[in-house]
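comment on this one:
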Amino acid sequence: MGELLFESAEWNFDTLKRTYDAIEAIAVGEMGLDPYPNQIELISSEQMLDAYSSIGMPIFYHHWSFGKRFARDEKLYRKGYTGLAYEIVINSNPCISYIMEENTMTMQALVMAHAAFGHNHFFKNNYLFKDQTDADGILDYLNFARTYVSRCEERHGIGAVERVLDAAHALMDQGVNRYGRRARASLGEERTRAEARQAHARESYNDLWRTLPSSTRGRVAGMTDNAEPQPASLGLPEENLLYFLEKFSPRLKDWERELLRIVRNIAQYFYPQRQTKVMNEGCATWVHYKIMNRLYDLGMIGDGAMLEFIASHSSVVFQPDFDDRRYSGMNPYALGFEMMCDIERIVTDPTEEDRACLPDIAGTGDVMAVLKHAWANFRDDSFVAQYLSPHLTRKMHLFKLVDRAAEPHYKVAAIHDDRGYKAVRRALASQYDPGRDPNIQVTSANLEGDRRLGLTHRLNNEIPLAEADARGVLAYVADLWGFDVELRGVSGDEAERYSYKTSPAPRAAVMH
Protein backbone atom coordinates (compact mmCIF):
# COMPACT_ATOMS: atom_id res chain seq x y z
CA MET A 1 0.00 0.00 0.00
CA GLY A 2 1.27 3.47 -0.91
CA GLU A 3 1.24 6.70 1.01
CA LEU A 4 -1.91 8.82 0.77
CA LEU A 5 -1.61 11.70 -1.70
CA PHE A 6 -3.93 13.80 0.49
CA GLU A 7 -5.97 13.28 3.63
CA SER A 8 -8.38 16.23 3.66
CA ALA A 9 -10.42 18.35 1.30
CA GLU A 10 -7.87 21.17 1.48
CA TRP A 11 -5.22 21.43 -1.20
CA ASN A 12 -2.07 23.36 -2.01
CA PHE A 13 0.18 23.44 -5.03
CA ASP A 14 2.49 20.73 -3.71
CA THR A 15 -0.47 18.42 -3.24
CA LEU A 16 -1.75 19.21 -6.72
CA LYS A 17 1.65 18.49 -8.27
CA ARG A 18 2.09 15.24 -6.35
CA THR A 19 -1.39 14.07 -7.35
CA TYR A 20 -0.94 15.11 -10.97
CA ASP A 21 2.30 13.09 -11.16
CA ALA A 22 0.56 10.01 -9.75
CA ILE A 23 -2.32 10.37 -12.24
CA GLU A 24 0.09 10.84 -15.13
CA ALA A 25 2.00 7.69 -14.15
CA ILE A 26 -1.22 5.68 -14.41
CA ALA A 27 -2.66 7.41 -17.50
CA VAL A 28 0.50 7.37 -19.59
CA GLY A 29 2.61 4.68 -17.97
CA GLU A 30 -0.06 2.04 -17.36
CA MET A 31 -2.95 2.89 -19.72
CA GLY A 32 -0.79 4.09 -22.60
CA LEU A 33 -2.68 7.32 -23.23
CA ASP A 34 -1.10 9.81 -25.63
CA PRO A 35 -2.04 13.36 -24.54
CA TYR A 36 -0.70 16.78 -25.44
CA PRO A 37 1.51 18.41 -22.78
CA ASN A 38 -0.74 19.73 -20.00
CA GLN A 39 -1.18 23.22 -18.60
CA ILE A 40 -3.32 23.25 -15.45
CA GLU A 41 -4.75 26.63 -14.44
CA LEU A 42 -6.68 27.44 -11.26
CA ILE A 43 -9.55 29.88 -11.60
CA SER A 44 -12.29 31.29 -9.37
CA SER A 45 -16.01 30.73 -9.83
CA GLU A 46 -16.35 34.18 -11.38
CA GLN A 47 -13.60 33.38 -13.87
CA MET A 48 -15.38 30.12 -14.65
CA LEU A 49 -18.56 32.07 -15.36
CA ASP A 50 -16.56 34.40 -17.58
CA ALA A 51 -15.16 31.39 -19.46
CA TYR A 52 -18.73 30.10 -19.90
CA SER A 53 -19.75 33.36 -21.54
CA SER A 54 -16.97 33.21 -24.16
CA ILE A 55 -17.65 29.56 -25.07
CA GLY A 56 -14.90 28.27 -22.84
CA MET A 57 -11.93 29.87 -24.55
CA PRO A 58 -9.15 31.67 -22.62
CA ILE A 59 -8.88 34.44 -25.24
CA PHE A 60 -11.81 35.77 -27.21
CA TYR A 61 -13.06 38.93 -28.86
CA HIS A 62 -15.70 41.11 -27.20
CA HIS A 63 -19.37 40.88 -28.10
CA TRP A 64 -22.51 42.02 -26.32
CA SER A 65 -23.97 38.49 -26.24
CA PHE A 66 -21.10 37.27 -24.04
CA GLY A 67 -21.87 39.89 -21.41
CA LYS A 68 -25.56 39.01 -21.52
CA ARG A 69 -24.73 35.33 -21.02
CA PHE A 70 -22.39 36.13 -18.13
CA ALA A 71 -25.07 38.21 -16.36
CA ARG A 72 -27.65 35.44 -16.76
CA ASP A 73 -25.36 32.60 -15.61
CA GLU A 74 -24.00 34.59 -12.68
CA LYS A 75 -27.51 35.40 -11.43
CA LEU A 76 -28.60 31.77 -11.65
CA TYR A 77 -25.42 30.60 -9.90
CA ARG A 78 -25.61 33.15 -7.07
CA LYS A 79 -29.25 32.26 -6.40
CA GLY A 80 -28.43 28.55 -6.32
CA TYR A 81 -30.51 27.61 -9.37
CA THR A 82 -27.57 26.09 -11.22
CA GLY A 83 -24.08 24.84 -10.51
CA LEU A 84 -20.80 25.24 -12.35
CA ALA A 85 -18.71 22.71 -14.20
CA TYR A 86 -15.77 21.43 -12.19
CA GLU A 87 -13.45 22.11 -15.14
CA ILE A 88 -13.12 23.43 -18.67
CA VAL A 89 -10.63 21.87 -21.07
CA ILE A 90 -9.34 23.44 -24.26
CA ASN A 91 -8.25 21.61 -27.39
CA SER A 92 -4.85 23.25 -27.75
CA ASN A 93 -1.18 22.32 -27.61
CA PRO A 94 -0.40 22.47 -24.74
CA CYS A 95 -3.84 21.34 -23.59
CA ILE A 96 -5.22 23.87 -21.08
CA SER A 97 -7.39 22.57 -18.22
CA TYR A 98 -9.13 25.08 -15.93
CA ILE A 99 -9.94 23.78 -12.46
CA MET A 100 -11.83 25.78 -9.85
CA GLU A 101 -10.32 27.02 -6.61
CA GLU A 102 -13.50 25.98 -4.79
CA ASN A 103 -13.05 22.27 -5.63
CA THR A 104 -12.04 19.86 -2.91
CA MET A 105 -8.79 17.96 -3.42
CA THR A 106 -10.72 14.85 -4.43
CA MET A 107 -12.47 16.83 -7.14
CA GLN A 108 -9.18 18.34 -8.29
CA ALA A 109 -7.85 14.81 -8.75
CA LEU A 110 -10.99 13.73 -10.59
CA VAL A 111 -10.99 16.66 -13.02
CA MET A 112 -7.28 16.34 -13.76
CA ALA A 113 -7.84 12.69 -14.66
CA HIS A 114 -10.99 13.55 -16.64
CA ALA A 115 -9.79 16.62 -18.53
CA ALA A 116 -6.00 16.60 -18.58
CA PHE A 117 -5.79 12.97 -19.70
CA GLY A 118 -9.22 11.75 -20.89
CA HIS A 119 -10.30 14.71 -23.02
CA ASN A 120 -6.71 15.54 -23.86
CA HIS A 121 -6.04 12.09 -25.34
CA PHE A 122 -9.27 12.25 -27.32
CA PHE A 123 -8.48 15.70 -28.74
CA LYS A 124 -5.04 14.64 -29.87
CA ASN A 125 -5.99 11.29 -31.43
CA ASN A 126 -9.52 11.46 -32.87
CA TYR A 127 -9.47 11.83 -36.65
CA LEU A 128 -11.99 14.70 -36.72
CA PHE A 129 -9.92 16.86 -34.40
CA LYS A 130 -6.73 15.99 -36.27
CA ASP A 131 -8.27 16.86 -39.66
CA GLN A 132 -10.42 19.87 -38.78
CA THR A 133 -8.73 21.66 -35.88
CA ASP A 134 -5.33 23.21 -35.32
CA ALA A 135 -4.36 22.68 -31.69
CA ASP A 136 -0.96 24.29 -32.24
CA GLY A 137 -2.35 27.52 -33.66
CA ILE A 138 -5.72 28.14 -31.98
CA LEU A 139 -4.51 30.35 -29.10
CA ASP A 140 -2.41 32.60 -31.34
CA TYR A 141 -5.31 32.87 -33.77
CA LEU A 142 -7.76 33.81 -31.03
CA ASN A 143 -5.33 36.46 -29.82
CA PHE A 144 -5.17 37.84 -33.36
CA ALA A 145 -8.99 37.75 -33.61
CA ARG A 146 -9.44 39.67 -30.37
CA THR A 147 -6.94 42.32 -31.44
CA TYR A 148 -8.46 42.60 -34.91
CA VAL A 149 -12.02 43.01 -33.63
CA SER A 150 -10.88 45.68 -31.15
CA ARG A 151 -9.15 47.62 -33.91
CA CYS A 152 -12.24 47.40 -36.10
CA GLU A 153 -14.35 48.77 -33.26
CA GLU A 154 -11.95 51.70 -32.85
CA ARG A 155 -11.89 52.46 -36.57
CA HIS A 156 -15.44 51.68 -37.69
CA GLY A 157 -17.49 51.85 -34.49
CA ILE A 158 -18.80 49.20 -32.12
CA GLY A 159 -22.25 49.21 -33.76
CA ALA A 160 -20.90 48.48 -37.23
CA VAL A 161 -18.70 45.64 -35.95
CA GLU A 162 -21.45 44.07 -33.86
CA ARG A 163 -23.84 44.19 -36.80
CA VAL A 164 -21.49 41.97 -38.81
CA LEU A 165 -20.73 39.68 -35.85
CA ASP A 166 -24.43 39.30 -35.02
CA ALA A 167 -25.08 38.07 -38.56
CA ALA A 168 -22.01 35.82 -38.58
CA HIS A 169 -22.92 34.25 -35.22
CA ALA A 170 -26.43 33.51 -36.49
CA LEU A 171 -24.88 31.60 -39.42
CA MET A 172 -22.15 29.72 -37.51
CA ASP A 173 -23.88 26.35 -37.86
CA GLN A 174 -23.99 26.92 -41.62
CA GLY A 175 -20.42 28.21 -41.72
CA VAL A 176 -18.54 24.90 -41.66
CA ASN A 177 -17.19 22.49 -44.25
CA ARG A 178 -18.98 19.31 -43.26
CA TYR A 179 -17.30 16.99 -45.71
CA GLY A 180 -13.84 18.52 -45.90
CA ARG A 181 -13.79 18.93 -49.69
CA ARG A 182 -12.01 22.30 -49.56
CA ALA A 183 -8.34 22.53 -48.65
CA ARG A 184 -8.05 24.29 -45.30
CA ALA A 185 -5.11 26.39 -44.18
CA SER A 186 -3.86 26.05 -40.63
CA LEU A 187 -4.88 28.76 -38.18
CA GLY A 188 -1.29 29.94 -38.10
CA GLU A 189 -1.38 30.39 -41.88
CA GLU A 190 -4.77 32.14 -41.62
CA ARG A 191 -3.36 34.57 -39.06
CA THR A 192 -0.27 35.25 -41.21
CA ARG A 193 -2.42 35.88 -44.30
CA ALA A 194 -4.74 38.21 -42.40
CA GLU A 195 -1.81 40.22 -41.05
CA ALA A 196 -0.32 40.39 -44.55
CA ARG A 197 -3.63 41.71 -45.92
CA GLN A 198 -3.71 44.40 -43.25
CA ALA A 199 -0.10 45.38 -43.95
CA HIS A 200 -0.76 45.61 -47.68
CA ALA A 201 -3.84 47.76 -47.11
CA ARG A 202 -1.83 50.17 -44.93
CA GLU A 203 1.05 50.38 -47.42
CA SER A 204 -1.12 50.92 -50.49
CA TYR A 205 -3.55 53.37 -48.89
CA ASN A 206 -3.43 56.89 -50.27
CA ASP A 207 -5.36 59.51 -48.33
CA LEU A 208 -6.10 61.41 -51.57
CA TRP A 209 -8.33 58.54 -52.69
CA ARG A 210 -10.91 59.55 -50.10
CA THR A 211 -11.53 62.75 -52.09
CA LEU A 212 -12.40 60.85 -55.30
CA PRO A 213 -16.00 59.90 -56.13
CA SER A 214 -16.70 56.23 -55.39
CA SER A 215 -17.35 55.54 -59.08
CA THR A 216 -13.92 56.89 -59.96
CA ARG A 217 -12.22 54.94 -57.18
CA GLY A 218 -13.67 51.71 -58.57
CA ARG A 219 -11.90 52.32 -61.90
CA VAL A 220 -8.47 52.98 -60.39
CA ALA A 221 -5.91 50.46 -61.54
CA GLY A 222 -5.26 47.83 -58.91
CA MET A 223 -8.57 48.44 -57.09
CA THR A 224 -9.78 44.85 -57.50
CA ASP A 225 -11.35 44.03 -54.12
CA ASN A 226 -14.89 44.46 -55.48
CA ALA A 227 -14.29 42.87 -58.87
CA GLU A 228 -17.21 40.57 -59.68
CA PRO A 229 -16.44 36.90 -60.10
CA GLN A 230 -18.19 35.13 -62.94
CA PRO A 231 -20.95 32.65 -61.98
CA ALA A 232 -18.92 29.74 -63.33
CA SER A 233 -16.27 30.42 -60.71
CA LEU A 234 -18.67 30.33 -57.75
CA GLY A 235 -18.50 26.56 -57.27
CA LEU A 236 -22.21 26.17 -56.61
CA PRO A 237 -23.85 24.53 -54.80
CA GLU A 238 -21.95 25.73 -51.71
CA GLU A 239 -22.76 24.37 -48.23
CA ASN A 240 -20.63 26.89 -46.31
CA LEU A 241 -22.71 30.07 -46.27
CA LEU A 242 -20.15 32.14 -44.38
CA TYR A 243 -17.43 31.17 -46.87
CA PHE A 244 -19.61 32.14 -49.84
CA LEU A 245 -20.62 35.48 -48.34
CA GLU A 246 -17.02 36.23 -47.34
CA LYS A 247 -15.77 35.59 -50.88
CA PHE A 248 -18.57 36.90 -53.08
CA SER A 249 -20.81 39.36 -51.22
CA PRO A 250 -21.15 42.58 -53.29
CA ARG A 251 -21.68 44.66 -50.16
CA LEU A 252 -18.98 43.69 -47.68
CA LYS A 253 -15.82 45.70 -47.15
CA ASP A 254 -12.47 44.02 -46.60
CA TRP A 255 -12.59 44.34 -42.80
CA GLU A 256 -16.10 42.87 -42.75
CA ARG A 257 -14.92 39.91 -44.82
CA GLU A 258 -12.13 39.34 -42.31
CA LEU A 259 -14.71 39.26 -39.49
CA LEU A 260 -16.66 36.56 -41.34
CA ARG A 261 -13.44 34.63 -41.86
CA ILE A 262 -12.69 34.78 -38.13
CA VAL A 263 -16.14 33.48 -37.16
CA ARG A 264 -15.94 30.80 -39.87
CA ASN A 265 -12.58 29.52 -38.63
CA ILE A 266 -13.83 29.40 -35.04
CA ALA A 267 -17.00 27.57 -36.12
CA GLN A 268 -14.87 24.97 -37.91
CA TYR A 269 -12.70 24.56 -34.82
CA PHE A 270 -15.73 23.67 -32.68
CA TYR A 271 -17.48 21.51 -35.30
CA PRO A 272 -15.82 18.18 -34.27
CA GLN A 273 -16.98 18.70 -30.68
CA ARG A 274 -20.59 18.69 -31.86
CA GLN A 275 -20.03 15.32 -33.58
CA THR A 276 -18.23 13.57 -30.72
CA LYS A 277 -20.01 14.62 -27.52
CA VAL A 278 -20.89 11.06 -26.47
CA MET A 279 -17.48 9.63 -27.34
CA ASN A 280 -15.48 12.52 -25.89
CA GLU A 281 -17.33 12.58 -22.57
CA GLY A 282 -17.49 8.79 -22.48
CA CYS A 283 -13.74 8.55 -23.00
CA ALA A 284 -12.96 11.15 -20.32
CA THR A 285 -15.44 9.66 -17.83
CA TRP A 286 -14.14 6.10 -18.32
CA VAL A 287 -10.55 7.31 -17.98
CA HIS A 288 -11.20 9.20 -14.72
CA TYR A 289 -13.15 6.22 -13.37
CA LYS A 290 -10.25 3.87 -14.06
CA ILE A 291 -7.61 6.24 -12.71
CA MET A 292 -9.45 7.04 -9.48
CA ASN A 293 -10.08 3.36 -8.79
CA ARG A 294 -6.44 2.57 -9.51
CA LEU A 295 -5.30 5.29 -7.07
CA TYR A 296 -7.55 3.71 -4.43
CA ASP A 297 -6.24 0.20 -5.16
CA LEU A 298 -2.67 1.51 -4.76
CA GLY A 299 -3.55 3.05 -1.41
CA MET A 300 -2.95 6.59 -2.67
CA ILE A 301 -6.43 7.92 -1.82
CA GLY A 302 -8.49 7.00 1.23
CA ASP A 303 -12.01 5.74 1.82
CA GLY A 304 -13.42 9.23 2.32
CA ALA A 305 -12.01 10.49 -0.97
CA MET A 306 -13.31 7.40 -2.75
CA LEU A 307 -16.82 7.87 -1.37
CA GLU A 308 -16.77 11.52 -2.47
CA PHE A 309 -15.62 10.46 -5.92
CA ILE A 310 -18.31 7.78 -6.25
CA ALA A 311 -21.03 10.27 -5.27
CA SER A 312 -19.85 12.78 -7.88
CA HIS A 313 -19.32 10.17 -10.58
CA SER A 314 -22.77 8.67 -10.02
CA SER A 315 -24.38 12.07 -10.46
CA VAL A 316 -22.48 12.65 -13.71
CA VAL A 317 -23.56 9.34 -15.29
CA PHE A 318 -27.16 9.40 -14.02
CA GLN A 319 -29.68 8.75 -16.79
CA PRO A 320 -33.31 9.62 -15.97
CA ASP A 321 -35.98 7.25 -17.31
CA PHE A 322 -38.16 8.40 -20.19
CA ASP A 323 -41.11 9.08 -17.84
CA ASP A 324 -39.01 10.99 -15.29
CA ARG A 325 -39.72 14.73 -15.25
CA ARG A 326 -35.95 15.30 -15.38
CA TYR A 327 -35.62 13.43 -18.69
CA SER A 328 -34.38 15.59 -21.56
CA GLY A 329 -32.83 12.97 -23.84
CA MET A 330 -29.80 10.74 -23.54
CA ASN A 331 -27.14 11.92 -21.11
CA PRO A 332 -23.92 11.80 -23.22
CA TYR A 333 -21.85 11.05 -20.10
CA ALA A 334 -24.10 8.10 -19.23
CA LEU A 335 -24.31 6.62 -22.72
CA GLY A 336 -20.62 7.17 -23.45
CA PHE A 337 -19.44 5.71 -20.14
CA GLU A 338 -21.76 2.70 -20.37
CA MET A 339 -20.56 1.97 -23.91
CA MET A 340 -16.89 2.13 -22.85
CA CYS A 341 -17.58 -0.23 -19.95
CA ASP A 342 -19.55 -2.54 -22.22
CA ILE A 343 -16.70 -2.69 -24.73
CA GLU A 344 -14.36 -3.58 -21.85
CA ARG A 345 -16.73 -6.44 -20.87
CA ILE A 346 -16.99 -7.72 -24.45
CA VAL A 347 -13.22 -7.67 -24.92
CA THR A 348 -12.47 -9.49 -21.65
CA ASP A 349 -15.53 -11.64 -20.89
CA PRO A 350 -17.81 -11.99 -23.91
CA THR A 351 -21.00 -14.02 -24.22
CA GLU A 352 -21.99 -16.01 -27.28
CA GLU A 353 -24.31 -13.15 -28.18
CA ASP A 354 -21.37 -10.73 -28.05
CA ARG A 355 -19.29 -13.03 -30.27
CA ALA A 356 -22.09 -13.11 -32.82
CA CYS A 357 -22.75 -9.35 -32.83
CA LEU A 358 -19.20 -7.99 -32.36
CA PRO A 359 -16.83 -10.74 -33.51
CA ASP A 360 -13.94 -8.36 -34.25
CA ILE A 361 -13.47 -7.38 -30.59
CA ALA A 362 -15.11 -10.15 -28.55
CA GLY A 363 -12.54 -11.95 -26.42
CA THR A 364 -9.50 -10.18 -27.90
CA GLY A 365 -8.29 -9.32 -24.39
CA ASP A 366 -6.62 -5.95 -25.07
CA VAL A 367 -9.10 -3.38 -23.77
CA MET A 368 -6.95 -0.30 -24.34
CA ALA A 369 -6.13 -1.27 -27.93
CA VAL A 370 -9.83 -1.62 -28.79
CA LEU A 371 -10.85 1.58 -27.02
CA LYS A 372 -8.00 3.66 -28.47
CA HIS A 373 -8.92 2.41 -31.95
CA ALA A 374 -12.55 3.43 -31.39
CA TRP A 375 -11.65 6.83 -29.93
CA ALA A 376 -9.38 7.56 -32.89
CA ASN A 377 -11.56 6.43 -35.80
CA PHE A 378 -15.22 7.09 -35.05
CA ARG A 379 -17.67 9.87 -34.31
CA ASP A 380 -20.86 9.52 -32.26
CA ASP A 381 -23.21 8.16 -34.93
CA SER A 382 -20.75 5.62 -36.34
CA PHE A 383 -19.55 4.66 -32.83
CA VAL A 384 -23.09 3.82 -31.69
CA ALA A 385 -23.83 1.99 -34.95
CA GLN A 386 -20.65 -0.08 -34.59
CA TYR A 387 -20.42 -0.84 -30.86
CA LEU A 388 -23.88 -0.69 -29.21
CA SER A 389 -24.52 -4.26 -28.08
CA PRO A 390 -27.80 -6.09 -27.39
CA HIS A 391 -26.67 -6.47 -23.76
CA LEU A 392 -26.36 -2.71 -23.26
CA THR A 393 -29.63 -2.08 -25.13
CA ARG A 394 -31.40 -4.27 -22.57
CA LYS A 395 -29.46 -2.85 -19.62
CA MET A 396 -30.43 0.75 -20.51
CA HIS A 397 -34.01 -0.27 -21.46
CA LEU A 398 -33.77 1.40 -24.86
CA PHE A 399 -36.69 1.42 -27.27
CA LYS A 400 -37.68 3.19 -30.48
CA LEU A 401 -40.57 5.63 -30.39
CA VAL A 402 -42.24 6.84 -33.59
CA ASP A 403 -44.22 10.07 -33.75
CA ARG A 404 -46.22 10.59 -36.93
CA ALA A 405 -48.15 13.81 -37.40
CA ALA A 406 -51.05 12.01 -39.08
CA GLU A 407 -51.55 9.58 -36.19
CA PRO A 408 -53.12 10.46 -32.81
CA HIS A 409 -50.74 8.36 -30.69
CA TYR A 410 -47.06 7.59 -30.38
CA LYS A 411 -45.99 4.14 -31.53
CA VAL A 412 -43.37 1.93 -29.92
CA ALA A 413 -41.78 0.57 -33.09
CA ALA A 414 -39.00 -1.53 -31.55
CA ILE A 415 -37.88 -2.68 -28.11
CA HIS A 416 -34.72 -4.23 -26.67
CA ASP A 417 -35.33 -7.79 -27.84
CA ASP A 418 -33.64 -9.92 -30.51
CA ARG A 419 -35.87 -8.60 -33.27
CA GLY A 420 -35.88 -4.94 -32.27
CA TYR A 421 -32.25 -4.49 -31.24
CA LYS A 422 -30.93 -3.47 -34.65
CA ALA A 423 -33.78 -1.01 -35.22
CA VAL A 424 -33.11 0.59 -31.82
CA ARG A 425 -29.38 0.84 -32.60
CA ARG A 426 -30.04 2.44 -36.00
CA ALA A 427 -32.48 4.92 -34.48
CA LEU A 428 -30.10 5.92 -31.68
CA ALA A 429 -27.17 6.26 -34.09
CA SER A 430 -29.26 8.49 -36.36
CA GLN A 431 -29.87 10.86 -33.44
CA TYR A 432 -26.17 11.79 -33.61
CA ASP A 433 -25.86 11.91 -37.39
CA PRO A 434 -24.67 15.42 -38.43
CA GLY A 435 -26.77 14.92 -41.56
CA ARG A 436 -29.77 15.77 -39.38
CA ASP A 437 -28.59 19.39 -39.27
CA PRO A 438 -30.45 21.60 -41.76
CA ASN A 439 -28.94 21.09 -45.21
CA ILE A 440 -28.96 24.64 -46.59
CA GLN A 441 -26.86 25.46 -49.64
CA VAL A 442 -26.22 28.44 -51.88
CA THR A 443 -27.61 27.26 -55.22
CA SER A 444 -27.76 30.47 -57.28
CA ALA A 445 -26.29 33.97 -57.31
CA ASN A 446 -27.17 36.44 -60.06
CA LEU A 447 -24.12 38.68 -60.10
CA GLU A 448 -24.87 40.31 -63.45
CA GLY A 449 -28.53 41.24 -63.00
CA ASP A 450 -30.57 41.89 -59.87
CA ARG A 451 -27.94 40.11 -57.72
CA ARG A 452 -30.53 37.91 -56.06
CA LEU A 453 -29.05 35.17 -53.88
CA GLY A 454 -30.79 31.79 -53.90
CA LEU A 455 -30.62 29.33 -50.99
CA THR A 456 -32.08 25.82 -51.00
CA HIS A 457 -33.04 23.83 -47.89
CA ARG A 458 -33.30 20.10 -48.59
CA LEU A 459 -35.76 18.81 -46.03
CA ASN A 460 -34.79 15.86 -43.83
CA ASN A 461 -37.80 13.61 -43.16
CA GLU A 462 -40.03 16.38 -44.56
CA ILE A 463 -39.31 18.57 -41.52
CA PRO A 464 -39.33 22.29 -42.43
CA LEU A 465 -37.48 25.06 -40.66
CA ALA A 466 -39.34 27.02 -37.99
CA GLU A 467 -40.66 29.97 -39.98
CA ALA A 468 -39.88 32.71 -37.45
CA ASP A 469 -36.29 31.51 -37.04
CA ALA A 470 -35.81 31.00 -40.77
CA ARG A 471 -36.99 34.50 -41.59
CA GLY A 472 -34.86 36.00 -38.82
CA VAL A 473 -31.67 34.32 -40.01
CA LEU A 474 -32.52 35.07 -43.63
CA ALA A 475 -32.56 38.77 -42.74
CA TYR A 476 -28.97 38.42 -41.53
CA VAL A 477 -28.00 36.77 -44.82
CA ALA A 478 -29.60 39.62 -46.76
CA ASP A 479 -27.74 42.18 -44.65
CA LEU A 480 -24.40 40.53 -45.44
CA TRP A 481 -25.24 39.97 -49.12
CA GLY A 482 -26.67 43.45 -49.70
CA PHE A 483 -29.43 42.39 -52.10
CA ASP A 484 -32.56 40.22 -52.14
CA VAL A 485 -32.31 36.68 -50.81
CA GLU A 486 -34.69 33.78 -51.37
CA LEU A 487 -34.81 30.53 -49.39
CA ARG A 488 -36.63 27.54 -50.91
CA GLY A 489 -37.46 24.37 -49.04
CA VAL A 490 -37.56 21.28 -51.25
CA SER A 491 -38.34 17.66 -50.47
CA GLY A 492 -36.59 14.57 -51.78
CA ASP A 493 -38.57 14.66 -55.03
CA GLU A 494 -37.46 18.30 -55.60
CA ALA A 495 -41.00 19.55 -54.97
CA GLU A 496 -41.03 23.01 -53.37
CA ARG A 497 -42.55 22.97 -49.87
CA TYR A 498 -42.06 26.61 -48.90
CA SER A 499 -40.35 29.78 -50.02
CA TYR A 500 -39.26 32.86 -48.03
CA LYS A 501 -37.91 36.06 -49.53
CA THR A 502 -36.35 39.08 -47.89
CA SER A 503 -34.54 42.29 -48.77
CA PRO A 504 -31.70 43.94 -46.85
CA ALA A 505 -32.57 46.69 -44.40
CA PRO A 506 -30.95 50.05 -45.14
CA ARG A 507 -27.71 50.62 -43.25
CA ALA A 508 -27.23 53.77 -41.24
CA ALA A 509 -24.31 55.98 -42.22
CA VAL A 510 -21.17 55.16 -40.27
CA MET A 511 -18.44 57.69 -39.64
CA HIS A 512 -14.86 56.52 -40.29
Notes: Confidence is low (pLDDT under 50) at residues 204-229. The chain has 20 helices and nine strands. Strands lie at 38-43, 87-90, 95-100, 400-402, 411-414, 439-445, 453-458, 485-490, 496-502.
